[in-house]
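idk why but the lab printer keeps eating my pages so im just putting this in chat instead. protein + zinc ion:
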Amino acid sequence: MHQCRSCSEPATLLCHLSRPGSTAEDYYCYIHAVEAGLIEIPIEELRPLAIQAGYSVNAVTFVIEAINASECLTNARDVCFAVLKAARKQFGASSSEAFRFWNMNDITDIGRIVVALVNTEYAPKVKHVDQKDFGRPLTLLEILELV
Ligand SMILES: [Zn+2]
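predcted complex ->
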């Protein structure tokens, strides 16, 4: 897992800087990528949601991106799958390291973030997801389908 150049959070953006004769790579989390003017995310609007849920703004933003990148989300299982898929794509084999850093240890953590996002404009696709599903442990078969 690469870490942000300004804080130690998992890096979600890699920026290639090339000048004649030299190239450099810089890693950014969402917050510092916004500060550097590389991406646009309403960090200040997401901060109270993240605080309410008890997670880093970066973790909440990651979940939002995972949800918004998915076609169809009808239940908690779909949301968990979307988040795992996004993690594999972003962090590869270090996905568990990134989740540990964000203090996301099981599906109830994803559930808490989704609860904070429901009824906001940031994740319209989770409107119909039943929050209670996240309180239920996944069965072995469901986990096998997810990984
Ligand atoms: Zn950072």
